[in-house]
Structures are given as structure tokens and as C-alpha cells.
Amino acid sequence: MNRKIFLGIAVAALMAILGGILLMGSTMVITPQGEIPAETPGITQLKPLQIELAELSVTKISERSATIKIAFKISNPNLGGVIVQTMDYQLYATEYSNSEQIAGGEIGSRPTGMVEFGSNYYVLLGNNAITLKETIGLKSFQNDPELWAILNDSTTPWRVTGDVFYNFSSLLGGQENELHFEFIK
Predict the structure, then answer these.
(1) How do strand 82-93 and strand 122-124 relate by DSSP bridges?
(2) What is the pLDDT of residues 82-130, one digit of tens each?
(3) Closest alpha carbon to 141 in 69, 61, 56
(4) Between the CA of residue 141 and those of 19, 102, 103, what are the distances in Å?
(5) Which DSSP category does 48 fall into?
(6) Residues 75, 117 within the same domain
(7) Do 88 and 110 meet the contact criterion of CB atoms below 8 Å apart?
(8) Shared-domain flag, residues 35 and 99
(9) Domain that holds residue 10
């Protein structure tokens, strides 16, 4: 038998299998927070992740540096698993400035290839939660005594904003989702 004919049959069979999977797969819809969607048969309604600010505290202050601990609790209200790739956040001391960021960061990382070993992303199973923590080190505020005084005050109001990037762990419904958050503490 000619190799080209065999290869053509194999490619056609793979295309038929993939086409069947795409046609028969379930459809998932993510509803925005606060909306109650109409029930549609054959479509699985997925709820967005829930994010809480678990901890925000200035734990250590010296003449040359300050340490801030921040923690976020991410809950998955769905039955299926979720891959939380990364969370970007910005921290503001609202008494100092509502627009000038004091600190910020990124927890996790996005996979860059088909398979990436040692990636820093988090698998969150259905109806479970995970707490993501980070310690922020701020250096020398000798030239800004107002900010230093605000960091020393335990009643300082804080604002935290950011985005969480996640995927539902499904071969067919794996598009990237983004959830924006803002907390005032």
C-alpha cells in the first residue's frame, strides 16, 4: 500500500475524531456576578471565583524598612477544578494617595508553552478554597516622613485592587478568564 494513501487515511480519521469531540462536547457559560441566568438544557452554568482579602498587616517597621503581609482567599464554588494562573495586585494607603501605589506584585505565573515543568500556578478543586500569601518588603522611607507615619499607624485605611487570571480545567472549556477585584480595609 502506498504511504501517501495510508497517511491520508490516518489524517482523515484523526480529523473525524476531533470533529466528533468538538461537536459532542458540553458547552460552559460563565455568568457575571450578580446575574441569574436562565436555565438552558445542555449548557453547564459556571460561577466565577470568589476572592476575599484574608490578611493585610504591617508586621515589622525599622528605620530602614517595613514589612507588609498580604493574603487572599480564593474560593471555587463550582463542581469542577480551576487552574489559577496568576494574581496581580496593587496596594494603596488611601491616607497617603489614592492613585500612587505603595506596593504591588504578582502571585503565580502563566504557563508559556504546551508543557512547562516547575510552573508556579495553583490547581483549585471544586467547592474548595486556597489562600495565597505574600510578604512585601519596603525599603527606606527617610525622605518621606508622611508615608512612614502612615505605615506606623495601625488604623490606616488600605485599598487593594487587582486581577485573577484562571482557566476551568477542561479540554474544551479552557479559555482564560479574568476576574477584577477591589477591597477597602
Answers:
(1) antiparallel
(2) 888 899 999 998 888 888 888 999 998 876 665 556 667 888 898 999 9
(3) 61
(4) 61, 11, 13
(5) P
(6) yes
(7) no
(8) no
(9) 1-46
